[in-house]
Amino acid sequence: MNCKRFAFVISDFYGGGAQKVFLNTAEELRLRGHTVKILTLRERIEHEIPPKLEIVNLAVINRATKALTNVLVEKAQAHVIGKALRSFQPDVVISCSCDRITRHLQGFNLYFWVHANSIDAATDAKQRQKLIAKNRNIYLERRLIVVSEGIKQALVNHVGLKAENIQVIYNPFDQALIAEKAKEPIAAPHADYFIHVGSFEYRKRHDRLLKAYHASGSQSPLVLMGKGKPADEARLLGLIDELGLAERVTILPFQTNPYPFIAQAKALLLTSDQEGLPTVLIEALLLHTPVISVDCPSGPSEILTDELAPYLTDMNDAEALASAIRQMDDAPLGIETKHYKRFLSTTVIPQFERL
Description:
single chain; alpha/beta; Rossmann fold; 2 domains; 7-stranded parallel β-sheet; 6-stranded parallel β-sheet; 14 helices; 39% helix; globular; Glyco_trans_1; transferase; Glycosyltransferase; glycosyltransferase activity
């Protein structure tokens, strides 16, 4: 294997799953002998950084640049990034969450790493058209890495990007690390339960979940792990009471380590209106916990394949979801390596090495 020089460019390490995946991927490449440098655009770190990863903050995003956002400012920021990249002389440059700026870079083997299906998540036609125009402006004639086939199809069908310019590479997962974290002792909420892990915001559709669970007639408890705004939590509690589920549904606060709870569950459920590539489904499979999901855009249909396919239900078919819960309740499905092998780091990282 020829070792390469990888440069990653990202706004910061504040926020959600994309930043975590970014760090994991960079560290995996470093561990395989590649030279890796990460360029951040501002000093904002919320995630734990692997100690041997080289990170340089270029500080090109600040109050002034945010107030004066325009193409000239973007080009000035890109000039600083380009100078740092030319000094490093990378074989591959991967941009994440700062593409409005990095689109101005020239002369590099550059890929834009897209983690979300923002177009299908649009709530109205005006917002949708605005997102389509934004994506076309940034990504037309560019090379992209996307984390699911569903995101690729949205960009091809709605934005008009060329399919040959978009490569699907799933997020890499370290099963050994997740399994080790799952060993942490916990006070399990019940002996035998279904679990949903996610924020209490509307797009996670706890209403869809609770109504299907109620219709299933399952006596196995349901655990809802997450957090939300007071209004979201009040709406959730109101629906639980309305359906008469107070004795069967338990709400747990967000856990920094949810893996022991997932590992001990009968099955994990997902009922969202929209996802990118739902990490929680894959993590459950890695822990050999079966999953049930609605077929939302995008990702679940790429995860629940073969023997898992009967547990992928139409988003608008409440009875099918209830039936899947009943079926899993009666005879939980056994999970095997073949159900998640394509998401393992050992499968995914070589695809980055071929860029």
